[in-house]
Amino acid sequence: MGQDQIDHILDRYVGQDGALIQLLLDLQQELNWVPKEAVQRITERLQIPLSQVYRVASFYNSISLELRGRHTISVCLGTACQVRNGPRVMDRITEVLGINPGETTADMRFTLERVNCLGCCALGPVMVVDGQYHGRVLPAKAEEILQGYD
Amino acid sequence: MSGVKSRADLEKLRRAILSGRDFAKPCISVCAGTGCLALGCKKVIAALRDEVQKQGLEGRVEVKETGCPGFCEKGTVVVVYPQGICYLKVTPDDAAEVVSQTVNAGKAIDHLLYTDPVSGQKAIHEHEIPFYQKQMRFLLGNNSRIDPKNIDDYIALGGYDALAKALFQMSPEGVIEEVRRSGLRGRGGGGFPAARKWQTVRDAKDGPKYVVVNCDEGDPGAFMDRALMEGNPHSVLEGLAIAAYALGAHEGFIYVRAEYPLAVENAAVAIQQAENYGLLGDNILGSGFGFRVKIQRGAGAFVSGESSALMTAIEGRVGEPRPKYVHTSERGVWGRPTCLNNVETLANVPIIINRGADWYAEIGTEGSKGTKIFSLVGKVNNTGLVEVPMGISLRDIVFGIGGGIPGGKEFKAVQTGGPSGGCIPERLLDSGVDFDELGSLGSMMGSGGMIVMDEDTCMVDTARYFLDFLADESCGKCTPCREGIRQMLSILNGICEGRGKDGDIELLQELSVAIRETSLCALGATAPNPVLTTIQYFRDEYEAHIRDRRCPAHVCRELISYYIDPARCQACLICLKNCPAEAISGGKDRIHVIDQSRCTRCGNCLDLCPTRFAAVRKMSGQPVPPSLPEEDRLLVRSEE
Predict the structure, then answer these.
(1) Looking at the predicted structure, is the pLDDT value of residue B62 above 80?
(2) Is B139 contained in some domain?
(3) Max avg pLDDT among B112-116, B245-249, B381-385
(4) Most CB atoms closer than 10 Å: which of B345, B351, B483, B487?
(5) What DSSP string runs through B365-400?
(6) CA B281 to chain centre
(7) Are residues B339 and B216 in the same domain?
(8) From chain A, which residues contact B within 8 Å (Cβ)?
């Protein structure tokens, strides 16, 4: 990602009060993470101390300060999925990939996330890979689904 | 269309919209809410549009994407107008038939209609389906009639008339008085009287004042605010504008989770369209009252739904609560008086203004008026969003509307109030849904998650689950919440993993009191509720875990074993091939046996064992029978 792309996002917010979270979300959405260069650039252009940018960026779940994998797996552990065996799906995926929720595989193939309710409880347990929903997944099925992504 | 400059203009606009519409024109409305989207409704919509074109009906049939009507279990939900025929579980393959049979020939398609599971009787219209029959859908009812991205749909149904009425026929004090008399209480969880909050902000001296919609719905298992914001955003905006008028604010915020992209999008479109018509902005409807709304996305922190935390999040800072000696209604966003209302609360406001407080106060109980939307989920046949009058019993919801528990299993508990709520057992199911009644049971109304649990749900594990969530979401600012929840979680983890000891239950109760009394905000103060209610109503399960190392629901991984019944095993090799731990031995015609020392208790074998064999059993609290000696493992097939 280039500085132009970062600056382009920052342009929308320069001079506005209380824009830090909104611009971090924009960066996250467009770059899929918030790199160090972007954090640096925010402090320069918006005159916000580095410590404050990091504090906010690290507080919120939606902002990632680490490079993420090619594919994002979200396993729902909302209460409805919880009572419908969601934890077993999560267990299986963590065992297969060897990572915990919030982590990325060493080969950068997958980032695994735990989410709390996706609003489609009728399908529970639910996992989402790159926006594609998979409902009523058995742990064995989850493993099979992951094989479809390189 | 240029600005609507008076109340008469609004009426003219409504007439113009209505006269431009042909109500005999067929319209296929398809739910495009989150549940149906996950099921692939976009493909159904594309197939329907394709089919309309193929059958030469372009321009004569409308295919409309609408908000969620609530019956998620049976998605994709399709309603064909003008007849109002309701189809369930529609797939792209059904598109041709829907267009040729129903749209063209006016006939209902039998296999897409609702079928009563007991009588086998079909229902053609929504209102004949039992799931809807017991509901009272003032807030959700319009979802299937509205394209949320088209303000004309909302106006055609009388939208923004309540705002006009408030602006031209009522004083701000009159609006507050109407809301006070209606008895409306906050739907976000606490149940604080809405009018009292409005009055405080109105009375505050400092200006400017702000109004904020809280759509930071973070309770796991609750998605009603999302359905409203996605499906009928104008109803929320209208309520917000009326609130702004009542308490003298000219600026408002919609605080919505970034994880709800469709809600963000639809709210943004709604604001734009309302501004274009002059229903938001300066001098609304020529009344002289001006009000602008901005969207602030939340970046994912459960604690930021707390009022004082939400205010700082709007300011772009870390969303942590502060002590509330001074309430946010006096000092909120940028230190100014701020009124924070939940999405559902505000969606009720136009209805109250339109129909009047007397009408509204007729619905519900003494202390809880109107309807409440619940997301009825978990181990229940009809998962979905249900809107019911306050006071209806939990039994009516779970069994009447929800259709009971799937698979002939036994009901165990219903959890309300999210992580701040509690689990209510079967013997209290006749309790009514009411802010005070649920509170007296140790639970709470909360935002409206209602999770049904059956005999396969472990109540200790459930308590552990909520504390795990809260330990993760605690911001760490105050010690009782940060450390206390962590200690309670560690005790619960011990119990679930077979390390429970005498005194654990009492220690949990003691910690609960301390956390409840001393935490800074409601996250901590209510965190013990799931633990306390499960101890209160399901103490025997805690004791079974602690004393017998037994999980009665067979959930806690460290306390269960899997066992293959040699009398039932047909040596089909399925479990053997799929065991990730390679813990199963056997072969063709060799009865399979699990090596308990290698088994990781993932449960794959039980999932995969064909139901006609049902050879794999889960057990807890008793020794696994010894494996068959090698020489006895040859399978003798009796029928051969």
Answers:
(1) yes
(2) no
(3) B245-249
(4) B345
(5) -SS-BSEEEEEEEES-SS-EEEEEETT-BHHIIIII
(6) 32
(7) yes
(8) 17-22, 24-25, 29, 52, 55-56, 59-63, 77-80, 82-84, 88, 91-92, 95-96, 115-124, 126, 133, 135, 138-140
Q: Which of B40, B221, B607 sits opposite A117 (nearest CB)?
A: B221
**How far apart are alpha carbons B190 and B525 in whole angstroms?**
12
- Amino acid type, B159: G
Per the confidence metrics, is the pTM higher than 0.90?
Answer: yes
Which CATH number covers residue B592? 3.30.70.20
Q: What local confidence, expressed as pLDDT, does residue B613 receive?
A: 95
DSSP B621: S
User: The domain A71-146 is classified under which CATH number: 3.40.50.1820, 3.40.30.10, 3.40.50.1370, 3.40.640.10?
Assistant: 3.40.30.10
Residues B215 and B341 in one domain: yes
Complex-level ipTM: 0.92
Rounded to 5 degrees, φ, ψ at B491 are: -65, -45
A80 neighbourhood in chain B, CB within 8 Å: 220-221, 377-378, 383, 451
Domain hosting B205: range is 151-361
Q: Which residues contact B63 (CB under 8 A, 6 or more apart)?
A: B27, B28, B30, B45, B48, B49, B52
Query: Does any CB of chain A come closer than 8 Å to the CB of residue B405?
Result: no
Domain boundaries in chain A?
Answer: 3-59, 71-146
pLDDT value at residue B639 = 59
Whether B498 and B590 share a structural domain: no
Out of B101-110, B245-254, B314-323, the most confident range is B245-254
SS3 state of residue B592: strand
Contact A116 B469 (CB under 8 A): yes
B469/B425 same-domain check = no
Cis-peptide, bond into residue B480, ω within 30° of zero: no
Average pLDDT, chain B: 93
Token look-up 């239950």 returns B505
Average the pLDDT over B164-175 and give the result. 96
Task: Indicate yes or no: CB of A120 within 8 angstroms of CB of B39.
Answer: yes
**Strand pairing class (A132-134; A127-129):** antiparallel
Instruction: Give yes or no for residue A1 having a pLDDT over 60.
Output: no
What percent of chain B has a predicted confidence (pLDDT) above 90? 83
Q: Are residues B220 and B319 in the same domain?
A: yes
Among B38, B220, B454, beta carbon nearest to A120: B38
Query: pLDDT by residue (tens digit) across A34-57?
Result: 999 999 999 999 999 999 999 999
How far from the centroid of its chain's Cα atoms is residue A30's Cα?
Answer: 12
Tens of pLDDT, residue by residue over B224-260, are: 999 999 999 999 999 999 999 999 999 999 999 988 8
Residue B348 lies in a domain: yes
Same domain? B479 vs B437: no
**CB contact set of B2 (below 8 Å; sequence gap of 6+):** none
Query: Are the C-beta atoms of B414 and B462 separated by less than 8 Å?
Result: no
Within 10 A of B422 (CB to CB), how many other CB atoms are there? 28
Fold of the CATH domain A3-59: Arc Repressor Mutant, subunit A (1.10.10)
| A16-20 own/partner pairs: CB under 8 Å, 24+ apart | A17/B315, A17/B316, A17/B334, A18/B296, A18/B314, A18/B315, A18/B316, A18/B317, A19/A46, A19/B316, A20/A46, A20/A48, A20/A52, A20/A53, A20/A56, A20/B316, A20/B317
